[in-house]
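CHAIN AND CONFORMATION:

***
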Amino acid sequence: MNIFVLGKDPVFPPINFTSNIGLLAIGGDLSYERLVNAYRNGIFPWYSNGEPILWWSPNPRCVLFPHELHVSKSMKKLLNKNPFDLTCDKNFKEVIENCAKQRKSQKETWITDDMLNAYFKLHKLGLAHSVEVWQGREIVAGLYGVSIGKCFFGESMFYKVNSASKFGFIVFVKKLQQMDFLMIDCQVNTWHLKSLGAREIPRIEFMEKLKECLEYRTLKKSWSFLMSNPEF
């Protein structure tokens, strides 16, 4: 299996050189230029402490088209009760740090200190966004990702209260619908995402849809306005 080793230039080999497990390249850095170039080409970093940076472009690709969002009967009941408050970009730091904490089922987090710093920078520059789910004065769930064009690249989510992350995700996707977003990149499939309407598509189809998303202007600023009206 031949894997490309990246140099100083923020460029990547064509994704058709990806291995059968979805790994495209190793090395390089997490600079703003390289990360943006990666996302625009359907590539994302995913690695653990002690490893070189690993760059992936899996086939098939897990995505959620906003209009295909599935809301179960039990979640509809919870949404109608509206037990949580939601904000966007109010506390990116707390959200990503909670996502970085080790889960009981994981030996170590893939959100390393370098990843934290890189996505803080993306957030300050208006490309990375967070959703905070509040219960009283405490953030009990949240998610973060990167937005370019009309695509939202979901990175990670966490919860401290049952159903809080689903609640936040559903409301957020509804907001993305209102903003005419075309696709949410979920990267790899999980039962949790599948239950919300995500599905796997061939990478070639993903890249065609991504190209369409990138034809639109990026909303490059704080999304604090997004949750101003929680009704949907």
Notes: Helices lie at 32-40, 73-81, 92-100, 113-124, 164-178, 191-195, 203-213. Residues 4-58 form a domain with the Alpha-Beta Plaits fold (CATH 3.30.70.3550). The longest helix spans residues 164-178.
